[in-house]
Amino acid sequence: MKRTKLSADGARMEADLLLADIRIGKRRLAELHADAAGEVRQIEARYAPDIALAANHIAEREKALERLVKRHRAEILGDGDRADLPRGSVMIKAELRVNRIKGMIERLRSAGLAAAIRVIKEAVDWDAVEKFDDATLAALGTERKTVDRFQYELKGADNG
Questions:
Q1: Are 93 and 73 in contact (CB under 8 A)?
Q2: Nearest-5° angle of CA 147, CA 23, CA 33?
Q3: CA distances (Å), 15 to each of 1, 11, 25, 84, 148, in order?
Q4: Alpha helical stretches, state H, the chain
Q5: At 126, is the pLDDT very low, low, confident or very high (cuts 50, 70, 90)?
Q6: pTM of the entire structure?
Q7: Alpha-carbon gap, residue 160 to 150, rounded angstroms
């Protein structure tokens, strides 16, 4: 299907109609999101007390089991580190771990072991690069270029 060329007024009118349709769509989408979020909150609120009770009960039972096995290690585990019981297994495994101390970052730096310090992944700060002059950009092997970027905005207080 071949498109006919629109006059300036016709093109502007068609663009304005599309903006109106987008506004209506955004408003409807926002309403749907709000409705869904409201229903999810109601469901979560209805189940929250039971979920909290069940999670707390499990956490208490896990702590009680750990205390029991540690307190009665010989009786439950014998000479081993694992006991298979009718409803599951319990284990205590010896594991060497580094004692975590305060001031470790400074100690790692002083010892020349900065590689053991986690840092955020390296990435280009494009906002800073945008501020470089053209000569600096050329030295880096890049340049500024003109790009047509489509945008739109809606008028009025209710922009969805």
A1: no
A2: 105
A3: 20, 6, 15, 72, 18
A4: 8-71, 73-77, 104-110, 126-130, 134-139
A5: confident
A6: 0.53
A7: 19
Dig out the tokens for 68 from the structure. 């029991």
CA–CA dist 122, 137 (Å, integer): 20
Q: CA 44 to CA 48: how far, in whole Å?
A: 6
In percent, how much of the chain has pLDDT > 70?
96
Q: What's the Cα-to-Cα distance from 104 to each of 97, 118, 119, 120, 121, rounded to whole Å?
A: 15, 12, 15, 18, 21
| Domain residue extents for the chain | 8-139
Angle (nearest 5°) at CA 128 between 124 and 130: 100
Task: Give the model's confidence band at 1: pLDDT under 50 very low, under 70 low, under 90 confident, else very high.
Answer: low
Give buried/exposed letters for 110-120 (b at 16+ CB in 10 A, else e).
eeeeeeeeeee
Count, residues in the chain: 160
pLDDT per residue as tens digits for the range 71-107: 999 999 999 989 999 899 999 988 877 887 888 888 8
